[in-house]
Amino acid sequence: MPTPQSSPDLRLAVTTEAETFERLHERLDPHGIAVEHVDCDGRTPPIRGGDGGAPAEFAGFDAGWVYPSRLMEGGVVDAHLGVPWVNDRAAILASRNKAGTLAVLADAGLPVPESRLVSNPVDDEAVLAAADEVGYPLVVKPNSATRGVGVAKVSDPDSLSGVTDYLDLVHDYRATGDKSYLLQEFLPDATDYRAMVLDGDYAGAVERRLSDASLAEGKWKHNVHRGAVAEGVDLADDARRLAEDAAGALEIPLIGVDLLESDGRVVVSETNARPTIDAARSASNPSRYFSAALVRRTAAQ
To answer: pTM, whole model, 2 decimals?
Structure first.
């Protein structure tokens, strides 16, 4: 590992203090890149400084790691920082749009689950007809939410109508205002992987697993925030290439690609342009997740 430099020559703004921040600091500091937290959430950021320009706390940065998740607050921070981002606002929006992402990947010839976008509101007959095309059982999921929020499995038209009636009553998605949702084929007994791709190259992967007790209770969602456990795995070559091809089609430098393997078939189910790089993901080869060269190239834009 390179010897730490006494005075960093580049300052990287990071808007999260989660696990990724600590690992960025550990890996990039020896390369002369100072990783510094820029507070974005849960505060009242000033619109201008005392002299009418940007507040002093935002001055002197060269690049940003990933555009803030809260896009409204992020717009203020972005304007004040005035730096290029490793994953910019366009990358975050593209990945957050599940249907748009799947359409780009499908058009690139990559395998994705059979899916239909419902541009809410839509006539009940149209929703039921789309569901028949996908086939039961199927998954209903918000187009823009994360962490498995609002995802439901339905087995028949009556169950689907119940879910869509509920959406009509309470549909809110405050983060984006997006009321559209997906009807997607359910892949039974699927193995769930999150593959990380950095600067076009596969960097590692985890398998997200439910415990035997959870499976016995009938649970099927593999989201870590819903109780699944992530364990580092070594993906097969074809799955690695699929993750890299997905990142290339979306043109996103740092991305988590969610793969589902079921009955000998591997598909891209979702992507995440704000992936957490935790211990399980970085244990096998942590240096692969943090490219000083990518940060420097971003700063030079």
So the answer is: 0.85
